[in-house]
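This part of the workshop introduces the protein records we will be handling. To make this concrete, we reproduce a full record directly below.
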Amino acid sequence: MAFVPQTPLQKEVHYEGNESRVDDQSEDDSDVNHDGVKRTGSTDTKHDKVHEQEDNYTIEANTDYSLFSNPPNLANIRQQLFDLKAEMEMSDTDFEQYFPFVDNVWRKSRAGETQKDHDGITEIYCCRLKPSGQAKTPTSKPHVEGKQQRRKRKREEKTCSMAMKVTFIESPSKRVRITRAVGPDEKHTHDLDYMDANKRNSAIMDVARREAHRAFLPGSIFWKMQEEPEKMEEAGGKFMKVSDVRNVQYPWRQQNMTVELKAHAGYSQGRSGPRIRRLSGSAPATPQNGESTLHIPVGAPPPAPQQPSEPPVPSLPPGTLNYPELAKDFLRPYLPYIPKIATQQRPHITLTWATSLDSRIALLPGIQTAISGPETKAMTHFLRSQHDAILIGVKTAISDDPGLNCRLAGAGGYGGPQHAMQPRPIIIDPRARLHIHPNMRLLRMAAEGKARGPWVVVGPGHKLHPQAVQTLKLHGGEFLQINEIHPEYGLDWEALFSIFHREGIKSIMIEGGGKVLSELLKHRYAHCIDSIVITIAPTFMGKNGVEVAPDTHYEGNQPIQTRLTDVKWQPMGQSDMVLCAHLEQTRHQGLLPGIQEFSRQQAPPPPANGQYSTNGMAQGPPPSQPHPHTYGPPGPPRPP
């Protein structure tokens, strides 16, 4: 198999470490004063001067703006970068944008130096709780005589061996692939909240730093950040404290001692947020705990309540789909399972298609036919998001000009980072018939960032046009030339699946066309098929339609049938029915034996009185009594 080489990525990304000092113990630290600055020696009057200036401040009028500029779908991407349940791929720009929000979890490994291979530049990042392997030597610190020792809060000692591999792919599109650097069963010994509580990420600290350098009070900055709790929490600031803001402002403050600090409009010192107390004829309430109070005269109209500013909803392109979480449960037993894939050394293969009642997927060959409703279409895109690749035959690619992408909200190009949840399109084209051009829907989607570049599988001996190779390469695609052609059966699917597995494809969703699906439903490939998901629509398309049905297989003179197991039926939408199942590998000869066997097991016992009807059958009970083999109570009487 031959891959077209790609140009190297001449870039190395480095990030600053976290400047935040975690002060969970600050409430009982005797050598940390009220401005959050540690004392390790004699006192300095300059620190007292800083605090005096914090007591005297002016109000900045024009502060009606947001402190946060979070990238799209940040909370979900942070969790994905933490869990690493599946491979992720994004542009290097997106990686630079998202990584500062998780650099409190990951740090670049010093032991594993940057490596360069055929894919590009690879770096290893380890969890920050990974033990260093070297015991820390306790060092004594200078201490003023008579000064009380600092009481540190004892933290639970945790270690974690999770690691991730970041590959900067050498291609014009400058992509970054993020995968696990450990086994599939390895996971963090802690959750994301634990890391956010013990160390602040550099992105959330940069938010505070920008306002600190504009000479705002630390308390006012913290108050302003809390005005947008949703954005603050998704950025990892759930456990942030005002002492973090003081720490990040301290270096700037040391260089700007004479600058008068200011506050944001609406801020009152000593409170976490603005409050209004309405008085009705009573004496003014006495402020408590240093809180200032806004008095409203009797008879004056109450001020309009302040509406919390909602985070802007990112605009999604037309055609974006949503699939409810509740509707995913019945599909989960048939989705790819990573531990099983690791043991079987081949991809998880799912066959899925929409069919009529007469097993047709199109009215005529070459005619694109809409069969299922919008609900099952959204289900199909959810299935695509759960697979590494989506495969079709060349006839389907020519006749339908499909996009072969995932249009769910949160996928790459639909509110998420580039290539997130997007499967790799694979087109089986043994004779190189597909005409590659930039106006193909596949390549247009890839150019817009809404899909991955396709792989086109061709057979041996075909000379590919250089322009086609270059066009596919510029859109992130590849030509794969294979030799796995069986002289009797044609394409050797089992060998082809093994090739995809070696190339990092761990799950494939096969959608068509009819010839590909019918071929893979044959007995010799039953052991390669893991799941089948069929959408059945209440319609007939006729004998001239494109049929999905395997050829009848014989062993000797006996026909062998193809059966399904673990069958589950699920209504979907107004009229569609979804069938989920596994392909049975045991073979049954002849007609269905189960009906005859079931009839024997369910035969009624002979009557006690030995009476038989004239045809030799045991007579049934009187009409007023339920039949001995009727399940449940007798139904209501039938209307006349």
